[in-house]
Amino acid sequence: SSQLSSLPLQILLYVNGIYYIFYFLATLAMIIYKSQVFSYPDDFLAPDLAVLFLMAILEVPRLYLGFKGNLTEAEAPLGLSLGLTVGSVVLCVYLLLWQTYVLWADVLLNAVLLSAYGLESGLKVTAIAAFVS
């Protein structure tokens, strides 16, 4: 029997996991910085932090299901991971476009993350197609 799991997807999931730790810490530090330097309205600080922490909570099962689905060649966990990726993309777009203050570093960090999500999603769809056929 042939192996259908995707090595590029596995590598990208691993790199995404490492990058997300950096992304989370950098974004958290920037939110703290912005709350100290700019006149950050208290009503908007909590939602920005909530989105960042919700994104971190989604990232764990998203990566786990991606790893598991790819390695076991099972389309269900990989499909669930793809669904969670859509949720992560929405939250990332919020942090890119709609958070209270958006710095150039926010744009850079979110652009890299969105690019990785896009590439990862394409590889997931390709892997699911290979598993199904």
Automatic annotation (TrEMBL):
Its main location: other. One of its GO terms (cellular component) is ciliary transition zone. Keywords: Cell projection, Membrane, Transmembrane, Transmembrane helix. InterPro entries: Uncharacterised_TM-17. Pfam families: Transmemb_17 (PF09799). The keyword Transmembrane helix applies. It is a multi-pass membrane protein. The keyword Coiled coil does not apply. The chain crosses the membrane at residues 12-33, 45-65, 77-96. It is found in: Cell projection, Cilium; Membrane. GO terms for biological process: non-motile cilium assembly. This is TMM80 protein. It comes from Struthidea cinerea. The gene is Tmem80.
